Amino acid sequence: MIPYGRQSIDDDDIRAVDRVLRSAFLTQGPEGPLFESAVAKACGAKHAVAVNSATSALHIACLALELGPGDLLWTTPNSFVASANVALLCGAEVDFVDIDPATWNMCPVRLEEKLTKAASAGRLPKIVMPVHFAGEPCDMPVIGELAQRFGFLVIEDASHAIGASCSGAPNGRCDHSAITVFSFHPVKVVTSAEGGVATTQDPLLASAMQMYRTHGITRDDALMQGEIDGPWSYQQQLLGLNYRMTELQAALGRSQMAKLDRFIARRHELARRYEEAFAALPVLTQARSTRHHSALHLFPIVLGPATDTQQRAGLRKRTFVALRDAGIGVNVHYIPIHTQPYYRKLGFKHGDFPNAESYYAGAISLPLFPALTDAEQDFVIDQVRHSVADLAA
């Protein structure tokens, strides 16, 4: 089976993890700060906070921005459920902004329209969380301008987009946001096995996130309140969690970061081959802006006419099954969050965000990872061509 995504591990990565196993620290040692420094440097950020998953990073980002009961977070329905779930875990409410039908990212036009209505109703979001879907950056300059005009905070969910850039600025520099979050899951651009990192330029936000990942505890004398008992002292100042990253994960992540540019370059080579092969087929690919540089975490395609969602869904299902039967581990990213049973209980329903639903009806993610060979990709391309031809016959 050719998977849709897979980690690329080499001897350097194995040696990095082996060194940790032979060291004195398996957690809370030197590797964590070194990994954070590598990510911060790559992103042009002053601070990076590493945790055990991107979901944890999104959660502590919301906590650091004091999202809570009575507040509202807006994100996109075209994402993994974690993008919305973290707001609910803070006691806040969630709403969504429909996607652009070409980029499949949060639509800035729909966002402005929704903000204008929300301002009139006196119910603006505290946080807007755009998601850089498949590694393609959202239009952050526009979203940043809207944040200034309407007074909300921005968390970039860049789980797909380590190594991407927007208008020449690396993702994670937070030019138009308070915090940016990356994922280091095995199928992402680089991996720490599991893991996430939040970057920020704000030292106070970094300090808060550092405490939230470790039970809300600090051992920093400068941050402690009142009299300190002795050098062993620590104080819980926030209600935090155990979201720490292990030394094993950090060592792997740091080793992988050294290969970031090479991995992304190979992803772009593979994406160009797909786009050339599918140019004459009735297949939609993600529109990518020339002002941005995508990390290309995923290569999603959409089958079928946008005007007929049911027909599109039927074509997708038959193609998905045919490709899986051929040994190609395609997947679907994503089932719109608002259509999940849990969110339907909150009042959302099918039809609320038609662009996201139309995209989902025909979406299939094809294999894309640096170790994918040209021969393997040629096989995938041939099978897609055959499947589409059979459906059209």
Describe this structure as you would to a colleague:
A 7-stranded mixed beta sheet has the order 2-10-9-6-5-3-4, with helices on both faces. A hairpin with a 2-residue loop joins β7 and β8. It has helices spanning 11-21, 31-43, 54-64, 82-89, 108-121, 140-150, 203-212, 247-257, 260-278, 309-325, 341-345, 354-362, 374-392, and strands spanning 2-3, 47-51, 72-75, 93-96, 127-129, 153-157, 165-166, 169-170, 179-183, 196-200, 217-218, 235-236, 283-285, 292-293, 299-303, 328-329, 363-366. It contains 13 helices and 17 strands. The protein is 40% helix and 15% strand. It has 393 residues and is an alpha/beta fold. α1 packs antiparallel against α8 (247-257), α2 packs parallel to α8 and α10 (309-325) packs across α13 (374-392).
Could you describe the largest sheet, including whether it forms a barrel? 7 strands, mixed
Number of helices: 13
Spatial strand order of the main sheet: 2-10-9-6-5-3-4
Can you tell me the overall shape? globular
Our estimate of the beta-strand percent is 5-15%
Could you tell me the radius of gyration in angstroms?
22 Å
Summary?
The chain has 393 residues and is α/β, with parallel strands linked by helices. It has 13 helices and 17 strands.
What topology does this entry show?
Elements: E1 2-3, H1 11-21, H2 31-43, E2 47-51, H3 54-64, E3 72-75, H4 82-89, E4 93-96, H5 108-121, E5 127-129, H6 140-150, E6 153-157, E7 165-166, E8 169-170, E9 179-183, E10 196-200, H7 203-212, E11 217-218, E12 235-236, H8 247-257, H9 260-278, E13 283-285, E14 292-293, E15 299-303, H10 309-325, E16 328-329, H11 341-345, H12 354-362, E17 363-366, H13 374-392
Parallel strand pairs: 1-16, 3-4, 3-5, 5-6, 6-9
Antiparallel strand pairs: 2-10, 7-8, 7-14, 9-10, 11-12, 13-15, 15-17
Helix pairs in contact: 1-8, 2-8, 3-4, 3-7, 5-6, 9-13, 10-12, 10-13
